[in-house]
Amino acid sequence: MTMDARRERTGTRVTVKDLARDLGMSVSTVSRAFHADAVIARETRVRVLARAKEIGYTPNPFARSLITKRTRIVGLVVADITNPFYPEVMTRLTSDLRAIDMNVMLVAADQSGTVDDALRLLLNYQPDLVIILAATLSSAAAQECRKSETPVIFFNRLSGEAGSFGVTCDNEEGGRRAADFLIDRGHRRLAYVSALADASTNVERHRGFANRAAERGIEAPVVLEAGSFSYAAGHRAAEAMRTLKARPDGVFCANDIVAIGFLDAVRQDLGLSVPGDLSVIGFDDVEMAHWPSHALTTIRQPVDEMLAATVALAKTLGADAGAEPVIRRIAPGELIERQTTRDRRAD
Amino acid sequence: MTMDARRERTGTRVTVKDLARDLGMSVSTVSRAFHADAVIARETRVRVLARAKEIGYTPNPFARSLITKRTRIVGLVVADITNPFYPEVMTRLTSDLRAIDMNVMLVAADQSGTVDDALRLLLNYQPDLVIILAATLSSAAAQECRKSETPVIFFNRLSGEAGSFGVTCDNEEGGRRAADFLIDRGHRRLAYVSALADASTNVERHRGFANRAAERGIEAPVVLEAGSFSYAAGHRAAEAMRTLKARPDGVFCANDIVAIGFLDAVRQDLGLSVPGDLSVIGFDDVEMAHWPSHALTTIRQPVDEMLAATVALAKTLGADAGAEPVIRRIAPGELIERQTTRDRRAD
DNA sequence: CTGAAAGCGCTTACAG
DNA sequence: CTGAAAGCGCTTACAG
Predict the structure, then answer these.
(1) Which of B293, B303, B290 is CA-nearest to residue B336?
(2) Is the confidence at residue A10, as pLDDT, over 50?
(3) Better-scored residue on pLDDT, A109 or B286
(4) Which of B66, B120, B126, B276 is most buried by its number of CB atoms within 10 A?
(5) Contact by Cβ (8 Å): B204, B175
């Protein structure tokens, strides 16, 4: 049977068998050529690899994982995609992971609640690793991961579940810096715009902000509830400011997108001036924060370092799925002063 | 051997064998219960499915695809992620595909050029279908898809390659509408801000705009080269306007993100007023277009319909991979008038 | 260092 | 309608 006839019969792919026959070697030998740590003559490996390239053979990953129990698939679970911080993280993570030969299977959760089903299907593909972006897991879902012995990395937002990995910014420190920045510049009536109430990022940023204010003898920051990490939520929080007896002069928002929604509403609907009447600080430094239309003062999220830490973790877990769970907390980047804050000491 | 001991030995998963033994049936029968079109007694199927649910059995998709040659994987290739139009498309596509039981394997191409390698790896996983978002394929890559008989759908941006599927907006019609809108309101010196020069979306929008202007006896629109679909590119195009002898009074931008970059630069760096000195129209109606900070007049991209068409196509191709290639062109949504355009007839 | 054989978890003709 | 057997494309002890 000619090679072409064979390929016709078995679908369109070249298999080990084809390659072995072509080279006059056994299937075992051919297979070994593709495993760096396999015992095989140097010269044999070279011949196999060369010929494989010529006829376009590449091992079928499904057949391989059936035996090795490793799939080189990482499941990426994404929810809150309206935050412009995530698209970049997603794509960069995907290409960085590809660089260490891991493939990303994407799971999108439009509404919270659907994550569970999606995750279950994902788990079917036996990912070597699951990375959760911008979401948390229900404890049922977390348990399924544990049961299938799939390590989970929470990126940015941490989870209460024990036994999982985490990579996050030191959000509390970020909150403290925001407080210092405002207080140093003469702000005295602080407010925090709170996003998703129990997201770790939200809680920690608030805590750092409030604690630092207390340490410096400033009245506790008022909390304006936005409710989620979105533009619309920031908008709503500004409306809520109407009901306050005393207007805050320094506002720290849970993140940039919330800050931008807040800004737009404060200026447009409340008719106030920023930074004239009040200063606003965000968190993340997403690209649009530097656009002149927003020019938002904000704290940079150390994305590069977070990404690097995540990939390093993925690599470790690739070698040893049973590694000890660890939370990596990375210092926030600098506070970037733009045009939504000003010095009030002369007021 | 107890079930638990067996699960210990074979990793952590329950297999057909386990379930068959548990039920006192053959492996074949159990397998048949999971295929709607298999010949099996109604009652048997019910029993199998019920017990499967109890002990958490679900067929291993890898083992299955080894035989069926269908993976239920769709490869999603994404490039230009800075356009906020895409994150939404990506996640919605992912969940819609999940609804028809297809899983998304993500490939990110940061730079053009890397798509080829990424695609090759993807093809290894034998996706039933590849969807290309915001990118084109090199002809080498396109040929690899053909060779492996993997259907390709181009979403939004079309490709010159024959034999592939396409879902796009009727961009030419969109361009015509932009021209009519501006001309009807007294604009006479038109300009087009061109993004990626040979992207089909860019070419078609420009063509429709220019053709309609010609039909209505208006001088051919000046072309301002932005060079890509990004904020920074729009910014550059505004700078390029400095060298023009006559300033345009009506500008149609290749898409919203380019328009926003253009707007910011026109106002900030050129010190011009929009819509006072000139009107600006975008294309897409991304979420931020309605933020008061931009309030961009734009043409809505019919995302819902495009998504629906893509999923329908995916379904068809799932049933019959050899379906006749087709390009679906969907009428653009309405032109939404906001605050970057005004009526100049009284000027 | 290489090859023959068993087996990963499934599906699907083929008998009965 | 059900079961035994072959086989999908690989990897990996086990001999030699």
Answers:
(1) B290
(2) no
(3) B286
(4) B126
(5) yes
Q: Do B162 and B184 contact (CB within 8 A), yes or no? A: no
Residue type at position A294:
H
Write the DSSP string, A53-87: HHHT----HHHHHHHHS---EEEEEE--TTSTHHH
- Measure the CA–CA gap between B218 and B200, rounded to whole angstroms: 24
Tens of pLDDT, residues A31-55: 999 999 999 999 999 999 999 999 9
Q: Which helix (H) or strand (E) holds B168?
A: strand B165-169
Region of residue A149 (left: phi > 0; alpha: psi -120 to 50; beta: else): left
All structural domains of chain B, each given as residue ranges with its CATH number in brackets, are 3-59 (1.10.260.40), 70-170+303-330 (3.40.50.2300), 171-300 (3.40.50.2300)
Say if CB B236 and CB B227 are below 8 A apart: yes
- Minimal C-alpha gap between A62 and chain B (Å): 5
Sole residue written with tokens 């792919």: A13
d(CA A252, CA A234): 11
State pLDDT tens for residues B15-24: 999 999 999 9
Summarize the confidence of residues B141-162 as an average pLDDT.
Answer: 88
Amino acid at A230: S
Burial zone of A79 (CB within 10 Å; 0-12 exposed, 13-18 middle, 19+ buried): buried
One-letter identity of residue A20: A
pLDDT tens, B247-265? 999 999 999 999 999 999 9
**Is the pLDDT at B8 greater than 80, yes or no?**
no
The arithmetic mean of pLDDT across residues A156-185, rounded, is 94
User: Which one of A98, A104, A272, A311 would you mutate to disrupt binding with B, by most B Cβ within 10 Å of its Cβ?
Assistant: A98
Buried b / exposed e over A205-218, threshold 16 CB at 10 Å, is bbebbbebbeeeeb
- B74's tokens: 């769709």
CB contact under 8 A, B267 and A122: no
Residues 6+ apart with CB under 8 A from B203: none
The whole-number pLDDT of residue A162 equals 78
Confidence label for A110 from pLDDT (cuts 50, 70 and 90): low
Beta-carbon separation of B11 and A69 below 8 A: yes
Record: contact A125-B62, CB cut-off 8 A: yes
